[in-house]
Specification:
InterPro entries: ChyE-like (IPR044992), Class_I_gatase-like (IPR029062), GATASE (IPR017926). It comes from Arthrobacter flavus. It holds the Pfam family GATase. Keywords: Glutamine amidotransferase. The protein is an alpha/beta fold. Helices cover about 30% and strands about 25% of the residues. The protein has helices at about 15-25, 75-90, 100-110, 130-135, 195-205, 215-225, 230-240; strands at about 5-10, 35-40, 55, 95-100, 115, 120-130, 145-150, 155-160, 165-170, 170-180, 185. A nine-stranded mixed β-sheet has the order 2-1-3-4-11-10-9-6-7, sandwiched between helices. Strand 9 (about 165-170) and strand 10 (about 170-180) form a beta hairpin. Helix 5 packs antiparallel against helix 6. The N and C termini lie close together (about 5 Å).
Length: about 240
């Protein structure tokens, strides 16, 4: 099988490595089957899509809806690099799955309205499949409603033209969408289990997602959550697009 590619943007080594292990584990991939590029550490290399089965993008501390003058040079470069890659990925309808930051990257690239209207605090929320989601192969095997971990400052308010809504939540109408046939973005995190979320709460306690003094409370709520279905999406993505 050709490897998959994970594009990461987390500067903290512990967060970046935890994310990589989660995509590997829940995708059912061996280390040699999941290559990683840390886009925050330097320009994206020239990537030949023919070398990969598909591309996944992890979460990010970056918010694409931030005013340009408030973005760091690193963020602006990352956005240019990923945007250039998406030019080719979208044109080829090449298998793509973006988790959380995927909404900001793929959505923005395709003309979605991305803003802070539907931000959600860190924790588990009930996700409901749309009719199109229930019929989509990437969501095969999932119940019509399931809990997933979220935690984001921005979200999609208006879908891009031609996008298909696959899943929603009461507090965030766009939790997952598809562009064309093979391009997907989720607002929730299909790669996160309880341990993974607790690690991120600890690492990002001063990042503005919640008052730092409440970190233990957020960890306690995470431990009480029952999140088991979202990782199926990663397994379905690997199963569907893994190629020799």
């Amino acid at each position: 099988m050709k490897p998959f590619l994970l594009i990461a943007t987390r500067a903290e080594d512990a967060a970046a490595d935890g994310e990589y292990r989660a995509f590997q584990r829940f995708g059912g991939l061996e280390p040699h089957q999941l290559h990683r590029v840390r886009a925050e550490s330097g320009p994206l290399p020239r990537l030949d899509l023919e070398d990969y089965s598909g591309i996944m993008v992890g979460g990010s501390p970056f918010n694409s809806s931030d005013p340009e003058h408030l973005k760091s040079e690193v963020q602006r470069r990352v956005e240019r690099d990923i945007g250039g890659l998406l030019d080719r990925v979208v044109a080829a309808d090449f298998p793509f799955l973006g988790a959380c930051y995927g909404v900001g990257t793929l959505g923005r690239h395709q003309g979605a309205v991305i803003d802070r209207t539907f931000s959600e605090p860190i924790g588990a929320v009930p996700i409901t499949l749309a009719a199109e989601g229930a019929a989509d192969p990437l969501l095969a095997g999932l119940p019509s409603s399931f809990d997933a971990f979220v935690g984001h400052k921005e979200a999609c308010t208006t879908l891009p033209d031609g996008a298909v809504l696959l899943a929603s939540s009461a507090t965030c109408p766009v939790q997952m969408f598809r562009i064309r046939t093979n391009l997907y973005a989720t607002q929730f995190h299909p790669e996160l289990d309880v341990d993974g979320l607790i690690q991120r709460i600890d690492i990002y306690r001063d990042a503005g997602y919640f008052p730092p003094a409440e970190a233990d409370d957020y960890m306690g709520r995470a431990r009480a959550a029952r999140v088991q279905w979202p990782a199926t999406i990663l397994r379905n993505f690997v199963s569907r697009y893994g190629t020799a």
